[in-house]
């Protein structure tokens, strides 16, 4: 994945944002939404596209766009940069495949300790049983 090529495929929409800014809020569209069409991307391989569509299925809109918005600053340019970085991080994080876990063998000392604890517990429970008369006792 080429990050610079990917950023060139982002499209942007602006709208008025709430928050501080006074009259500026009512006049200027400072809220920025960065959008990315995963299926139409040329920067990603088919395998990466499938993986993204599967992993980020809940964040992709009905039109097929992955989006990130930012409206924290009073400047549209700053919000655009932050939304771009947010969307790029989202894509990069989703493309990281977790390593497959290899089972490590259980150490012999751990097995022995577990079996010894079971033996001790068994002895404790056996000691609680009432003594039964009759049967195999030679002193009867």
Summarize the structure.
The chain has a domain at 3-95: Double Stranded RNA Binding Domain (2-Layer Sandwich). The mean pLDDT is 87. With 140 residues, it is an alpha+beta fold.
What is the CATH class designation of the domain at 3-95?
Alpha Beta
CATH level-3 fold name of the domain at 3-95:
Double Stranded RNA Binding Domain
What's the SSE pattern? HEHEHEHH
Q: Characterize the largest beta sheet: strand count, sense, and whether it forms a barrel.
A: 3 strands, antiparallel
Whole-Å distance between the termini? Answer: 86 Å
The multimeric state of the shown protein is single chain
- Low confidence ranges: none
What would you say this structure looks like, in words?
With 140 residues, the protein is an alpha+beta fold. The protein has a domain at 3-95: Double Stranded RNA Binding Domain, CATH 3.30.160. The chain is built from 5 helices and 3 strands. The chain has helices spanning 3-8, 23-27, 46-55, 76-95, 108-127, and strands at residues 11-15, 31-37, 65-70. It has a 3-stranded antiparallel sheet. The radius of gyration is 32 Å and the shape is elongated.
Relevant terms:
3 strands; 3-stranded antiparallel sheet; elongated; 140 residues; 44% helix; alpha+beta
Spell out the blueprint of helices and strands.
Elements lengths: L2 H6 L2 E5 L7 H5 L3 E7 L8 H10 L9 E6 L5 H20 L12 H20 L13
Antiparallel strand pairs: 1-2, 2-3
